[in-house]
Amino acid sequence: MADPPPSLTTPKTPNQQPLETPQPLPPRPPIDPALAPILSAYPIPDELNLNLMRGMNIVPEGEPNPFHYTAETVLSAHPNYTHQEHTIPGIDNNAIIISVFTPTTPTPTSENEKNGKEEALQQPQPQPRLHPTLYHIHGGAQISGSRFSGVSETLSLCPSPTILLTIEYRLAPETRAPGGAEDCFSGLVWLFAHASALGIDASRVVVYGVSGGGALAAVVALMARDRGVGVGVGGEGEGDVEGQGELGGRGRIKGVMLHTPMLDDRCDSVSDNQFWRQSPWSGLANSQAWDLVLGNGVRGSRGVTPYQAPARETVYEGLPPMYVDVAECEVFRDTAVRWAGELWRAGGTCELHVWPGVWHIFDMMEGRDVPVVNMSVAAKKNWLGRMMKAEEM
């Protein structure tokens, strides 16, 4: 394959914070001894490799790519779901693809159930049941991944039955921030506008974002508050997509889950320095990713807005309940903790977990006999179950 175009190469960063390794590296928390051998067995380069992140040049031509996810990948893991695809217009007249995974309704099998069904056909039929919904924003540092990335694992966290919508937002560097966030917000507006038709209970919508998708989920929460969308008390969820303000009273973001979120372009926290090198998703790679997201010479400057990097926000009032989940041994630790603190300072509510001895996206190893992994998965399931529970009248 030919070399990638200049836009896909790791950027140079003139007139910005230096990319040299802090000398010396500060002391840092130890890795869990049960997991340390995994890091030794799978070394990850410190510098960003966009081709690797996008799954390019990693398998011989003609062979299946294990990093290429599709709807079939999700359905094979969750055969009780169906998949539909929708295309909606974005803010720049771009096409945005949204995939909707809907749980199937079991058909009656026993004689009593069959008799009951026949009798029910002669009675007025109730309205179809509306389901809680997870609005999924995939990870990949805002520069890689697809709407199917991580969906199988995320769907396993949700109580049954849950509808999952996942969005194909535009990636950087081809589209700079806040383009991807605007796509995600357009998808949320569409969700509320078509909630009843999709079988969605518009009062039980949770926005979920992981890593780079966590940044976009945080921005979507800011946009929704600022633009009056998803801040109501529930209801039908129907309305004119262009009348965004009217949708605010017709549906609600019940909560936002930020899973190891990429929040701050300044890359100057203690945890950034501690894990600048020799770490999965190093501080160096993170700073290079932000350069692709924002453009050369922008990262760390005064002109960066909260819609580009959500940690630049100064007003945290009016945001929905949040769950913030981060590893102790990763660059995002301190900015995630600070985000939770700002929510509390503003009178908001946030469940914060800092998992000791582990690194970025460590809980992808679910199934291993490691207590911290199982605890982290259980905590997310517990919070989502509480958020998506129907409110008693």
UniProtKB/TrEMBL annotation:
Biased composition regions of type Basic and acidic residues, renumbered to the chain: 111-120
Organism: Plenodomus tracheiphilus IPT5
Pfam short name (any one): Abhydrolase_3
Protein name as catalogued: Alpha/beta-hydrolase
Matching InterPro entries: AB_hydrolase_3 (IPR013094), AB_hydrolase_fold (IPR029058), GDXG_lipolytic_enzyme (IPR050300)
Superkingdom, natural source: Eukaryota
Record keywords: Hydrolase
Segments of this protein annotated with the region Disordered: 1-34, 102-131
Molecular function terms from GO: hydrolase activity
Record field: compositional bias (Pro residues): 21-32
Domain Alpha/beta hydrolase fold-3: 135-362
